[in-house]
Amino acid sequence: MRRVVSLFLPTWPTDRARKADPALPPDVPLVLAGRDGNRRVVLAADHAARAVGLRAGMPVSLAQVMVPDLTLRDANLGGDRQGLERLALWLHRRYAPVTAADPPDGVVLDTTGADHLHGGEAAMLVDMTNRLTRAGFTAKAAIADSWGQAHALARFGTEPVTIAPPGSGPKIVADLPLPALRLPDVTVEGLHALGLRRIGDLLARPRAPLVRRFGQDLARRLDQVLAQADEPIAPIRPNDPLTTERLFAEPIGAAETIARAIGLLVQALCPLLAQRGVGARRLDLVCHRVDRRPQAARVGTGLPVRSARHLERLLCERILTLDPGFGIERMTLTATVTEPLPARQLANALTEDAPPAIADLVDILANRVGDGRLYRAAPITGDVPERVVGRVAPLAPASAASWPVGWPRPPRLLAPPEPVETLALLPDHPPVWFAWRGIRHRIRAADGPERVFGEWWYTADEHASVRDYFRVETEAGERFWLFRAGDGADTATGSQLWFLHGLFG
Amino acid sequence: MPAAAPSAIAALRDRIVRIEQRGRPDSAVLPFGIGEMDRRLPGGGLALGALHEVAGGGGEATHGAAAALFAAGIAARTPGPVLWCLTRPDLFAPALAQAGLPPDRVIFLEAGDERSVLACTEEGLRHGGLGAVVAEVARLSMTASRRLQLAAERSRTLGLALRRWRRPAEAAEFGQPTASMTRWRISVLPSAPLLVPGVGRHRWLVELIRCRAGESADFEMEACDAAGRLAVPADLADRPGAQGRSRLAS
């Protein structure tokens, strides 16, 4: 099943203008003006400008009357278009093998077989929009089965991130207004004149009379928004790609044949990588089917790799996700992201033990479960237990740092800590008994308190807060890690309630 | 009884061992360093290149805190990195560091479901570059355990299946047969008594429930130290006839 992401940048021109000129005040209406024949018209307006009623297409003189001292800049249509291409290129390197600019205000990506590297579709879209928002661009994204559907949901959906489940029928687009169909304005006005407002209204009518009146375009757009008709994406191509390609005399489809073709492609690619002294970090395999629907698979590696065996293994793992349909007639393999990989001396097997190489295993596992799901723990200096464990990439250089020893720590940590009922003497005695999940435990022995102060540099609320941790052992021999929020005397330091935070073995 | 009988039995045992080890170059073991435990295990320790199951006893069945430390202690004494596959990310890494597994050595893998935990564990066991692979799973079928066992045999990596259930009632599943080499159950015992109020070194009841080509046994042990080693409690070590209570394999 094909999955297409449409990224919508409603204020792309003005966001670009703001980025180019940081001196512009942020909340003041900004419009970009250009020529339309003999008139000077507004070509783009940002959020603040839209809020006071300025629209693209209105004469500049009218806008200046509505907002005195309007901030006005010249529009740069060519620059915006090129910027969109550059954004598409960045998205291509980062997210998906098939990407194209969708002017004037969007980018379209075919993410089939690539979302696993970002932890699934939802996580990928959120990551995409967050990165753009941090860079200062308003962005909305939608993923659906076709370009038309994703395009409509991104522009007219209410959420910043919309996910149409695979195979979702007409229901998901029925409520969208007619401009979501990407039809010429004349057609939309004509349909409005007939009293048709939403896509659902169109779907409820017989199609033949509509097509006779408004042309074949309407039927095509309707099929595209319902994901019934296909629409090719002309992918952006980097200037200087590291690509190998194979054409087949007869379309291929069997898994073994595809695996063999992958082997040949990789063997052709590795010398190219070696020539430039780089290793691949991300590889895109695009299979062009006879019915013009590309099937793509993307694999990532933790370290730059040039070993044919390693790359072949990674790509062959993804054969199952490829649907050959009626056959594949052309396959291309591109090293989308590369990093320098200089020659290095191997450890001599006679004199020293080489460290076990697990980079290939890490890559295989990371491509299966997602990059963020495979990690090493790294110590973070601090006192609050839930904050002391950070995550680093599994192949990050070893730091030899560890947590301070001394106080025992429980192997299982409850997140968040669970409140328990206790009976305890104040201010600094361990509880006599506590009840957790309906079971009452009598305490036989206890160690503590270990006082942990709030980390005021994270939140101001923690400035005065205190926790007193106790390691307690019940009469049955079970050992728990309890804490009291507060120092037992002063209510400013916490609620004086007890919590269970961990389980000792 | 004729004098030749013991040697005949020994020869037969030898043959069985050779049949069982077919395809494996040698049978390396990881000793616990405690004579009483190592004597009970065939070859004098935990077989490397094999799958071992560990579960918590009693209330521990759902969280398996002691079982996790027991597994960490074993993994800490193998050379090389350790892959720890889990579905519920409630493992606290500082505790593993205190059991001898520093953060640089453990790679955590957070899988979405148990099927992918098993698949990733098998991949890790097959690779051969790891010291040990720990899989936190609830269900372990005969087929799944057989696959893990075969993968471990080929690469001689130690596989540890940490059995952990959602509900205590599901722990009855631990009786089902699997292809693993040994099966351990770790329950908590009151800690070593101290002269002052406080909690002493943690103690466990380590039960060897099943052991291929060996008998089951149980031991009272002190929990892992900073190098992952268990210890015999001092008050039991010098007891007359301190040989561990053993019973016949069921």
Question: What would your notes on this structure say?
Answer:
The complex is a heterodimer of chains A (505) and B (250). Helices cover 28% and strands 31% of the residues of chain A. Chain A has helices at residues 12-20, 47-51, 60-66, 77-94, 121-134, 147-156, 171-174, 185-193, 199-203, 207-214, 216-225, 255-276, 308-317, 359-369; strands spanning 4-8, 30-36, 39-45, 71-74, 98-102, 106-110, 140-144, 161-163, 242-252, 278-289, 294-305, 328-340, 374-379, 389-392, 412-424, 431-436, 439-453, 466-474, 479-485, 498-504. In chain A, strands 15-16-17-18-19-20 form a 6-stranded antiparallel barrel. Chain A has a 5-stranded mixed β-sheet with strand order 5-6-1-7-8. In chain A, strands 9-12-10-11 form a 4-stranded antiparallel β-sheet. In chain A, a hairpin with a 4-residue loop joins β18 (466-474) and β19 (479-485). Chain A is globular and about 85 Å long. In chain A, 38% of the residues are buried. In chain B, α6 (114-127) runs parallel beside α7. In chain B, 31% of the residues lie in helices and 23% in strands. Chain B has helices at 4-20, 35-40, 60-63, 65-76, 93-98, 114-127, 142-155, 234-237, and strands at residues 29-30, 46-47, 51-56, 82-86, 106-110, 132-137, 158-163, 182-189, 203-211, 217-222, 245-246. By secondary structure, chain B is an alpha/beta fold. Chain B is built from 8 helices and 11 strands. The chains are: A alpha+beta (505), B alpha/beta (250). β13 (374-379) of chain A pairs antiparallel with β5 (106-110) of chain B, so a sheet runs across the interface.
